[in-house]
Amino acid sequence: MTHRWFDGTPRPRVLAHRGLLTAADIAHGVVENSFTAVSAAHAAGAQYVESDCHLTADGTVVLFHDDDLTRVTGDPRRVAEVTVRELDALMSSRGGLITLEQALEAFPTVRFNLDVKAKDAAAEVGRLVAPHAHRVLLTSFSDRRRRDALAAAEQTGRDIRPATSAGSATIARVLAALSVRSSALVRSALAGVDALQVPERQDRLRIVTPRLIAAAHRHGVEVHVWTVNDPADMRRFVAMGVDGLVTDRADLALSIVCE
Q1: Which residues constitute the domain of residue 66?
Q2: pTM exceeds 0.90 for this model
Q3: How far is Cα 69 from Cα 214, in angstroms, rounded to an integer?
């Protein structure tokens, strides 16, 4: 049965990658994964927002991609070394910090695609998303971290678990099964997975192919491609039959998928 995260929205789905930064926002110093960036994605009509989860020194889950603050704020410390109050001050001129709890409460109609970046964040992410499981998809490059977050959500006793997409090891198993043309191995690798969220290529290996899409669809699994910002690429993937585009240009992608 299809998870409610997918219900009632047309394909291909547009997933706003770390929110949306308009030209005006960038000119004013607004950064990705900020409250302003998520607000802009929502205002542009994006029903899905992709973001990332880290844990601060005082145990708050925040939407932040990198392990450290250097690229986004110029501060060399790691997210795990600062308090939420310190991070809030650093982000105040950059669009505003947004915690996971704030995101879920402030944007009750948005469906979140959350990448658990830090091992220590998994349990708290799972606990926080449990009441919102119908509109959350959990993922991670680490299958173990992804499963830990799912397990924490399920331990709350809610009647629905979050949706989930495969980690790197599971994706490797799927690709290996396809290479030996084993439908049984593909089915086994995809068990418990709702989506494959993958780049078009990994180094010289082409990942997104008609064969992968067809195999995933046979087992009720969607294929979402990241990160797609070029209009020609968007149209090409739509023509291939992918189910979702993860993009920094959600505004542009929304106009293209509606053509």
Answers
A1: 4-257
A2: yes
A3: 40
